[in-house]
Amino acid sequence: xxxxxxxxxLLVRKVREGDFTPDRQIDFLLAAFFTLKEAHLINAADEVSxxxxxxxxxxxxxxxxxxxxxxxxxxxxxxxxxxxxxxxCLISMPPAIVLDYAxxxxxxxxxxxxxxxxxxxxxxxLQEAQAYQQQKNKVGQRPDIGFWIxxxxxxxxxxxxxxxx
Length: 165
Fold this sequence. Notes:
Elements (H helix, E strand, L loop, with lengths): L6 H11 L4 H12 L5 E4 L12 E3 L2 E6 L3 H10 L11 E4 L1 H9 L6 E6 L6 E4 H13 L15 H9 L3
Parallel strand pairs: 3-5
Antiparallel strand pairs: 1-4, 2-3, 5-6
Helix pairs in contact: 1-2, 4-5
């Protein structure tokens, strides 16, 4: 079951196509991710004792995180993790809370997120996400709202405005 790229997918593509260093791309993608109202994890357990799913990639343990329920639905359906008529069981919360929650799994070896696994997906270390949130908090931004990119240049600001971001 394929789906059309959504707004976040298109943002990832635009950032990748832009003339930015990989570190700067991460800044942009984190800024967009942390402005979402909700991020979603696939619940591998039950509603009483939720537990997110994990995946392994090159011996690294990653937590798949989704920017929309539709992203998670496509991911689980394409991998045969649930049937077409089975309910999608998600753990949904604001991205800043997902970060706090994910930190509790570091001791189990999970040190990275895989945001929207697939062609528009990207891997972010929890350390990078924490550093972004700390820097955002340091300049006085609330951790759960607002769009903030560190040291935004006028050229980069024009990129965001030109692309309706």
